[in-house]
TrEMBL record:
Keywords: Oxidoreductase. It comes from the Bacteria. PANTHER family: ACYL-COA DEHYDROGENASE, ISOVALERYL-COA DEHYDROGENASE, MITOCHONDRIAL-RELATED. Residues 253-388 form the Acyl-CoA dehydrogenase C-terminal domain. Residues 32-133 form the Acyl-CoA dehydrogenase/oxidase N-terminal domain. The lineage of its organism: Bacteria, Bacillati, Actinomycetota, Actinomycetes, Micrococcales. It holds the Pfam family Acyl-CoA_dh_2. This is Acyl-CoA dehydrogenase family protein.
């Protein structure tokens, strides 16, 4: 990949630093790296989940495996990989630790906001500084909790307000924030800007204590008269098609995340089932794994998961194709991609939840023991799949198919 941020296409539109597609060598290499990281996370996933501590050690594990700068172009000091590769990494990590898969997914999107929102002339410098520092990017952008305001203060601003569900904020080196400007020449605009975690007046609440995704560092943040300097600002959050690819991007990350949870639940369920040396007393089979009843259930869940994987595989590559167009991508092309990804969101949510729930039907009552940890898969996907109502994704898909309607641009659609 080449760092071509300041170049322009033949239409005069700024070019994306991401172009082309991942080859087999790239995909195989990073899948292997992600598998190694996932295997390390698997050794104490249940214990870490119960401890419910901020995942600083897990972040260091990601750094050690060189996953933090995966999407940063080589010319800026990164690995120069593609988004298709990143989605594979997210999926593989989710097979053993959904919390860290979420943390990585949001990091990639938040770091990518340098390109989605940043002024072209400044993007290369942001990318290089992020790569040099191996910055982990958290966020504070929850759009249904719009209480952050910027008020002009000299050549900068003061930030005040409260924001829930700020994923990665308690362990991120930096936090990307969206806030509404009140007053001055930018009155009414929403600006995206970046603050270090220790900025004066930025208070981490440490209140993330939920059913699942317990190590996603998604607590609330309060901002008390925080200074925001001109150099902290990436740019305006608007409705230009390329910049709004941030939403299909995170939704596609969710689809891969849910798929990984389903695959992880199936793998753990298979190990449990094959480890049972007896069978149900009414069965003619010698073991549970040889019983057609349990084979049928596993076969159904596996087939449905494979279908989700096939759809995700197509869309992961399609997303790279869309990014390569840069600002030349049209609103119609962006909308078509968003609808396809919404379809994945629907099926990955429902299949993931079903697999994580029904795997208990084949593993038996002993698998509900707190020492087994099979419930971790269900708790994680049940918690995160409530991020935005999947029924509205179904409506989004159906309304488009029937009437050609497109939902208004937001951080959810």
């Amino acid at each position: 990949m080449s760092l071509t941020i300041d170049d322009t296409t033949t239409t005069g539109a700024p070019r994306s630093p991401w172009h082309g597609n991942a080859d087999a060598q790239e995909l195989n290499h990073w899948r292997h790296v992600a598998r190694q990281a996932a295997d390390e996370l698997a050794t104490d996933a249940l214990e870490r989940d119960r401890a419910n501590q901020d995942p600083f050690q897990e972040v260091e594990l990601l750094r050690r495996h060189n996953l933090i700068n995966l999407l940063v172009p080589k010319e800026a000091g990164g690995a120069g990989a593609h988004w298709e590769t990143a989605f594979h990494v997210i999926r593989i990590l989710a097979t053993t630790d959904g919390s860290i898969a979420q943390l990585v997914a949001y990091h990639y999107i938040n770091q990518g906001s340098i390109v989605f929102y940043g002024e072209p002339a400044a993007q290369a410098d942001w990318l290089r500084r992020s790569a040099d520092g191996q910055w982990v990017w958290g966020d504070s952008v929850n759009p249904v909790d719009p209480t952050l305001e910027l008020t002009p203060d000299g050549d900068g601003y003061r930030l005040n307000g409260f924001k829930r569900f700020s994923t990665g904020s308690s362990v991120g080196d930096v936090i990307i924030i969206n806030a509404l400007v009140r007053g001055g020449t930018n009155d009414g605009k929403i600006l995206a800007f970046v603050l270090e975690r220790g900025r004066a007046g930025l208070e981490l609440q440490g209140d993330w204590d939920f059913l699942g995704q317990r190590l996603s560092a998604s607590g609330s943040v309060r901002y008390n008269d925080v200074a925001v300097r001109p150099e902290d600002i990436l740019g305006e959050v608007g409705d230009e098609p390329f910049s709004t690819l941030v939403t299909p991007g995170i939704q596609l990350a969710f689809g891969n995340f849910y798929l990984g949870v389903a695959q992880g639940a199936l793998a753990k369920g298979r190990d449990i089932l094959r480890g049972r040396t007896n069978s149900w007393f009414l069965s003619s089979a010698e073991t549970y794994a040889q019983d057609p009843i349990f084979q049928r259930t596993v076969g159904e869940l596996l087939a449905r998961t494979a279908a989700v994987e096939a759809l995700a595989g197509v869309l992961n590559r399609t997303f790279d194709d869309a990014l390569a167009k840069g600002a030349a991508i049209t609103a119609e092309e962006r909308a078509e991609l968003a609808i396809l990804i919404a379809q994945l969101k629907v099926v990955s949510t429902e299949v993931g939840l079903d697999v994580a729930h029904r795997i208990f039907e084949v593993t038996g009552s002993s698998s509900t023991s707190n020492t087994v940890g099979l419930d971790l898969f269900w708790r994680n996907i049940r918690t995160h799949s409530l991020h935005d109502p999947v029924d509205y994704k179904k409506i989004e898909v159906g309304a488009n198919y029937l009437l050609g309607e497109v939902q208004p641009i937001s951080l959810y659609t």
